[in-house]
Please model this.
Amino acid sequence: MGPGDLEELIKGLELYRDENTLVGVGDDAGVYAYGGEVYAHTVDFITPVVNDPYLWGAISTVNSLSDIYAMGCEPINALAVVGFNNCELEVGVLKEVMKGCADKLREARVVLLGGHTVDDKEPKFGLAVTGVCKGGRYLTQAGAKVGDLVAITKPIGVGIITKAIKEGKLTERDVKHAIEYMLRLNHKASELALSFANACTDITGFGLLGHAYNIARKSSLRLVVDFSKVPVYEEALFFVKEKIYPKGAVDNLNFLKEHLQGEGLQWWQTLLLCDPVTSGGLLFTFSEDLKAEVEKKAKELGVELWVVGWVEEGYGLKVVKT
Model:
């Protein structure tokens, strides 16, 4: 599935909505008002991206919380979603996964209220998360404006790195820096975005371009990405040129082709921009006039920030190299 496919799947269905439904299907999280508060709700789970079960549990937890942060909201509680094969895996493996989850939830100050486990040949782990939108404020993928700058808060190339790990070309020890980024909560980046962003999302399975396209189509504008400004893990650069990359990168590119303009890019550069990310950073747009303020606030919060493009009239995506 690609960006927008879920909306196509439910098109024509008579989904119940009421006056408290503020954001329905199609954004990073749903938003609902109740009892004088505004809440965001999401669910996400992933298959193992690393071999260490503790790290997988921790990374998956950060990944699941990210959709709430992308809305500019604060996660408050969660339910675990677990697929586990008891016949092939020791229960101790699941215990390590849950330990990684518990440690990250403690860091994020999020309460685990329960969950559900099913017998599954391929292990899966994630969370259904509820967040609160303080003061009723939240961000969406819509709202980008012509002249906005486009910024991201973590490097890309995680999908290629995890593919290399699965093929035995790398170990977790070889890519500690990338794992540190995957383990980094987006709470500070969320605070930054809520202060300045016109539109916001997080970079996960659809890759940088897929999530940029979500903002473009929701805002009815064109997002331009400058490849030369995009931060990429060195290992990802190496392995993509060796033709080691996940199938998801090709799927994302195939979905986006008709919406994408770009000249002078080599095949591997386009695949990098479509590489599916696990626990990526935020992608948001903000007024160019606020650039100095945004960079100052990012430094104060300790958020790494890369301005990778801009918003212009038109529709879809354009990739350039300056």
User: Anything to note?
Assistant: The domain at 149-320 is CATH 3.90.650.10 (Phosphoribosyl-aminoimidazole Synthetase; Chain A, domain 2).
